[in-house]
Structure formats: C-alpha cells, structure tokens
Design goal:
With 407 residues, the protein is α/β, with parallel strands linked by helices. The protein has two domains: 5-30 and 298-406, Alpha-Beta Complex (Aspartate Aminotransferase, domain 1), CATH 3.90.1150; 41-295, Type I PLP-dependent aspartate aminotransferase-like (Major domain) (Aspartate Aminotransferase, domain 2, 3-Layer(aba) Sandwich). Helix content is 39%, strand content 16%. The protein is built from 14 helices and 17 strands. The chain is globular, with a radius of gyration of 22 Å. The protein starts with a helix and ends with a helix. The relative contact order is 0.16. Bound molecules: 4'-deoxy-4'-aminopyridoxal-5'-phosphate. Residues 31, 94-96, 124, 126-127, 172, 176, 201, 203-204, 224, 365 line the site of 4'-deoxy-4'-aminopyridoxal-5'-phosphate (PMP). 4'-deoxy-4'-aminopyridoxal-5'-phosphate binds at residues 31, 94-96, 124, 126-127, 172, 176, 201, 203-204, 224, 365.
Length: 407
C-alpha cells in the first residue's frame, strides 16, 4: 500500500481533538504513548460485547470463542515478531513487567553473588531498577556500557566488558531519549560468543521498524501494547522456548499450574506457566488488531515515512539559534530531545501546549543518562505514523513563538 496519510489520520479519532477548545492537537509525545486507531477500539468493543467470558476452562460457547480469539491474538503477535511458535509469546502488563519478570526469574535461578549483568548508559529506569533490586538482594554486579556524545554506544568498551561472571546483557533496542537505535544484532552476536543471553527492551522499536526475533537470535524481548497503537495495560515478553522451559515461574496462581496439592504443585506448559491469573483476553485481541493495522501499512513504509519526518524536523530545528539536539546517531528513531540556551524545557512545554502542541519535558525516566550529559532534563518531540510535515511546520512556528516570549 502507498502511504496514504489522510486515510491513516482519519482512523485516529483523537487527532480531531481541539486543545483549549481552539487549537488542533499536534501530538508529538508518541514515545510516551500512541493514539489509537478506530479498528483497535472497535475490536475492543466487539470483544466486550460478544465474547466476554473467562477463557481456557469454560465448556460453554462464549468461553470457547473468547479462548480462540485470545490464542489467535498470540499467533498474530508471534508472526509479527517472527517467533518460531506462539508458546514463546507471553502476555504481560507491559515492557516494565516483562523486564522485571526476566530479572526476577533469571537472577534467582541462574545467578549468584558476584555474577554480572551488562546494561547500557541509555536505559530507561525500567531497565535499570529491576536489576538494582536484584543486585541488592543477591549481590549481583551491574556493568554499564558508556555512550559517546552523539548517543551511540561504545561498542569497543562493551566487547571488553565480558568476563566469566557475565550472565546476561539487557539493553534497549532504541533509546526513548536519544533516539539511538543500537546495533542489537551485533550486540547479540558478541554476547552469544561469550555464551551470554540477551534481553532487548523493544519499547521504542516495536512500532517503528521490523523487529525479527529469529533473525536477531535474541533470547528475550519485551514491548508494550500502548506504544504500538494498542491498549494500555498489556504487553508482550518473548522468550526462547529453551529458556522458558528452564526458568522458574514468576507469579503463582490460577492458569499457571498443571496440578496443585499441598505436597507438590506442578506447572502448566508454555506459555501458561508464566501467565498466572485471568489473562487480559480483551486487550490481547485488541493488541493483535493494532498489530494488524501496523502490518497492513508496512513497517518498512512506516520507518521510511517517520525517517522523513525526523530529517525534516531536525533540519528546521538546527536553524534555531541556541538549540542543541541530544542524540545524533546515524541510525535513529524519530525522537528528538533538545534544549535551547537559557530556556527551561518545562516553560517551553507549557507554552507549546498553549498552542496545541503536545511535547514531553523532563528526565524521560532516564536520570542516569541525564547525568551522563550533565543536564536535568530535555524537551522531546517524538513522531508516529500519523504525524505530518505540516505538523512539523506548525511545531517549529510554535517553538519560535515560545522562544520569543522566553528569551
Ligand atoms: N523502555 C523504554 C525504552 C521506554 O521508552 C519505556 C516507556 N517510556 C519503557 C521501557 C517502559 O514501558 P512501560 O511503561 O509501557 O512498561
């Protein structure tokens, strides 16, 4: 399909919102969360109104239909990321839960005091704090790969960081602050050459480029539904079968058991071993619909379109006196973090909002990265498949107007 931006925009009711009853919404906070297409919203409504029954154990028709829809959604997701089988797709609440889950089950069963996990300088707090909790509890050491001033990872240092105590690498596919797309295939190959598995935080990659777990040969990969035009509160953890078979369960409860007795409880087969409690069988189906939506447009088309928006916005922003962009890596998602001399990003955010432009300001849940650059926070614009060149132009105009007020 050719890129039909008008048709795409018509699918997103939220893009018609007026801010302060006046300005058309220019939504440039897509790295935080994305707006939702009608197709996904309709699917959610249909699921609630025609297939709302608890799944897996029901003998009645509605329960069986809900079960089939939920398991079909798992297959759609498996195909989307090219997993070998849908049993490797675990439903979670989001990226954060997926990372916490791997940190907990991996560290408790595969690591002991003094063992090491390699992270990077550009991680979101959700790929830092779960490891710090494990470090405190078990004496695990965290090693942090530095990044250069342009936001690219220092791969040479990374290569030198592996020791015989290194047990896992956990790293973001793309940075939510710098936009940097890390050379993940290379990282995985290096880690595997040391016999070390890799967890990828794909929160910022999943909606913007083709993610292929088989081609990457990645061991675990986490993402959130709400960042790919899907519902909030559901996400996915992919895990290679060999790891999921070997590792212990995370949460205990219904669904995840085979048989329970006071003497000995046995666990369910994959993927249910990791899905305690009633699954989110409505949002799973809605997430699959948003994935179908993205797939129908095509990830390569989306990547090319967003890359055009990134170049266009970058070029215009660099023309503004005193504006500095943080993150200028060669391979970059459509995320631009910036500061303007003498201007607080919060003030900029407020003034832009007054003109209908939604951007994010602050530390973006990456305080160690802020520290690395010697700053408190940035202003950040981030693009999605429905943004337009005209919106970039309106943003630049609003930015210039705000700057004349602020300095
Ligand atoms: N990692 C990255 C790189 C992110 O950008 C985010 C969300 N901003 C997360 C993890 C956490 O995602 P969630 O809050 O959906 O769990």
């Amino acid at each position: 399909m050719s890129y039909n931006i008008e048709k795409i925009r018509a699918d997103f009711p939220a893009l018609d919102i007026k801010i302060h009853d006046k300005y058309p919404l220019i939504y440039l906070d897509n790295a935080a969360t994305t707006q939702k297409p009608r197709q996904m919203l309709d699917t959610e409504y249909i699921a609630y109104t025609t297939r709302n029954a608890n799944i897996h154990r029901g003998v009645h028709t509605l329960s069986q239909q809900a079960t089939m829809a939920h398991e079909h959604a798992r297959e759609v997701i498996a195909k989307f990321i090219n997993a070998k089988e849908s049993a490797e797709i675990l439903f979670t609440r989001g990226t954060t839960e997926g990372i916490n889950m791997v940190a907990s089950i991996f560290c408790s069963s595969q690591m002991r005091s003094g063992d090491e996990v390699i992270l990077s300088a550009m991680e979101h707090h959700s790929n830092i704090v779960p490891w710090q909790l494990q470090a405190e509890a078990r004496g695990i050491k965290l090693k942090v790969v530095p990044c250069f001033d342009n936001g690219e990872l220092d791969m040479e240092t990374m290569r030198s960081m592996f020791s015989d105590r290194t047990k896992l690498v956990s790293i973001c596919y793309a940075s939510n602050v710098l936009g940097t797309v890390n050379p993940v295939k290379e990282i995985i190959a290096v880690a595997h050459s040391h016999g070390v598995p890799v967890l990828l935080d794909a929160a910022q990659a999943i909606a913007h480029r083709k993610v292929d777990v088989t081609d990457l040969d990645v061991d675990f990969l986490a993402f959130s539904g709400h960042k790919i035009y899907g519902p909030t509160g559901i996400g996915v953890l992919y895990g290679k079968r060999e790891w999921l078979e070997k590792l212990p369960p995370y949460h205990g409860g219904g669904e995840m058991i085979e048989h329970v007795s006071w003497e000995k409880t046995t666990y369910n087969e994959l993927p249910y071993k990791y899905e305690a409690g009633t699954p989110d069988f409505i949002n799973s189906v809605a997430l699959a619909e948003s994935i179908n939506y993205v797939s129908n447009i095509g990830l390569n088309e989306i990547q090319a379109y967003e890359s055009m928006l990134l170049s266009y916005a970058t070029e215009q922003m660099l023309g503004i006196d005193g504006l500095k962009i943080y993150g200028t890596s060669v391979d970059k998602e459509a995320v631009i973090s910036f500061l303007v001399d003498g201007v607080h990003p919060y003030d900029l955010g407020v003034l832009l909002d007054q003109q209908g432009v939604a951007i994010r300001t602050g530390h973006h849940c990456a305080q160690p990265l802020m520290q690395r650059f010697g700053i408190e926070g940035t202003a950040r614009v981030s693009f999605a498949l429905y943004n337009t060149k005209q919106e970039v132009e309106s943003f630049i105009k609003a930015l210039n107007k705000s700057l004349t007020i602020l300095r």
